[in-house]
Write a structure and sequence with these properties.
The chain has helices spanning 3-23, 27-39, 43-55, 60-68, 74-97, 100-130. It is an all-alpha fold. The protein has one domain (3-130). It is globular. It starts with a helix and ends with a helix.
């Protein structure tokens, strides 16, 4: 690893960590695109690396902060976590059967849809408070 690569990786990790703690995103929104565009990873390599990062207990301190203020619903989280494991296995099998280009397209469409919905509902919320 070069010094430049380490700097990029540290920047990716800090950005993903801050955004994860701040708004609950990190892997798909920050790490995957950053690895693809900043380090030239394939979509599959970026997704695999992001999943590796998420498998590590990197968000434990952020979870502790939310838990201290009563903002973690443990039972719901455990159900989602258990089924996330199964879904991750199935999703990775499906992804690896598709060409890298199709996975990028699907990933981009999902991000575009989510972005559009967030922008729309945020705008609607702002305008409803102005009335």
């Amino acid at each position: 690893m070069t010094a430049q690569e380490i700097t990029i990786l540290v920047s990716i990790g800090l950005a993903a960590g801050v955004l994860s703690g701040f708004v609950g995103v990190g892997g798909g929104i920050v790490i995957v695109p950053a690895l693809v565009y900043a380090l030239g990873f394939t979509q599959h390599q970026a997704q695999g690396t992001s999943l590796f990062v998420l498998a590590m207990p990197v968000v434990i301190l952020a979870v502790m902060n939310y838990a201290k203020t009563g903002n973690v619903h443990w039972k719901f989280g455990l159900v989602i976590a258990a089924t996330f494991v199964i879904g991750g296995f199935i999703g990775s099998k499906l992804s690896l059967k598709l060409p890298d280009a199709w996975v990028k397209i699907i990933f981009g469409l999902i991000m575009a849809y989510v972005s559009f919905r967030l922008l729309l509902t945020g705008y609607q919320s702002l305008t409803s408070h102005d009335s």
